[in-house]
Amino acid sequence: MSCTECKNKLQVRISADDIMEPPWKAYNVLKKMDYPYEHIVHSMKDPSIANFWLITLPQIVGGFDYDEDVKKKIWWQYEESMRYDQLRDLVAKRNPGWEYLQDALVSIDPVRAREDPVIVKNVPYYKAKKSLEAEVTKLNPPPRPQNWGELNLPLNISSWSEEDLKNPAKLYEKTVLLNAQREIADKILDAQWEAKWRQEKVEEMLEQKVRPYIQDSSMAVLPQPILLKSQKKAQKGSRQRKWWFF
User: Fold this and answer.
1) How far is the CA of 18 from the CAs of 4, 15, 178, 204, in angstroms?
2) Which is it for the CA torsion 44, 49, 52, 55, positive or negative?
3) Lowest mean pLDDT among 81-85, 103-107, 136-140, 168-172
4) Considering only CA atoms, which of 14, 30, 15, 20 is closest in space to residue 62?
5) Is residue 102 packed enough to be buried (19+ CB in 10 Å), middle (13-18) or exposed (0-12)?
């Protein structure tokens, strides 16, 4: 005797829902996390955070586990990249010998070093400019011109009405705030003027040092060109002379 509804099929349901948590539950939790995307490059310097981004996160999103060989390859690539970043931090400090570390960066990853802003393309020019900047820093800039620079100040005379100025406390407040604002604005303009003057002074000194080399190269006279006869033409001419004698 058999069941007509089951049609002799074994009614057994096999499921792993009660054995392990499905991967999408962890993924739903992961989506609610606030990733530090703006600091991801800096945070990758921490090996534990790098392990999360490179191994843990892809496994949760994909619902699979990496083999040990794959994990070793991923981590080896991470260590190679970190070797470049560690050297790059040393080069950016510009301590003595940084130019040799820069050569090591180029040898580790030439493609990345080509577009890296930390890499100095012309080391002698960079050192000469830094030397001039150090000299200019010791100089005292001239006083700022009276009407140089403009600032959009938040307070002015019209910030107080005539009724307010009848009150001695408001009048005192106006005087104090406008004077303090003027002092702060003068300091900001003085700093801007000093930075602008030093930058122009460095460019002027660089031009003075480079101009003699430009003049020497422009006034140099090219030697008379040496014209060499083509070997084919010489052979052709000799053949013609041979036929002429015959």
Assistant:
1) 31, 7, 73, 78
2) positive
3) 81-85
4) 30
5) buried
- Residues 54, 74: contact at Cβ < 8 Å? yes
pLDDT (mean) for 118-137: 88
Per-residue pLDDT tens digits for 216-227 = 555 555 445 444
0.70 exceeded by pTM: no
Residue 241 has pLDDT above 50, yes or no: no
Q: Cα-Cα-Cα-Cα dihedral of 113, 40, 92, 201, to 10°?
A: 100
**Could you tell me the two tokens for 209?**
């040092």
Cα–Cα dist 98/130, whole Å:
14
The pair of structure tokens assigned to 238 is: 């000799």
The three-state secondary structure class of 237 is helix
- Residue 28, Cα to own-chain centre: how many angstroms? 35
The residue written with tokens 């012309």 in the block is 122
Query: How many other C-beta atoms are found inside a 10 Å radius of the C-beta of residue 85?
Result: 13
Q: What is the DSSP string of 11-69?
A: -----STTTS--HHHHHHHHHTS---GGGHHHHTTSHHHHHIIIIIHHHHHHT----HH
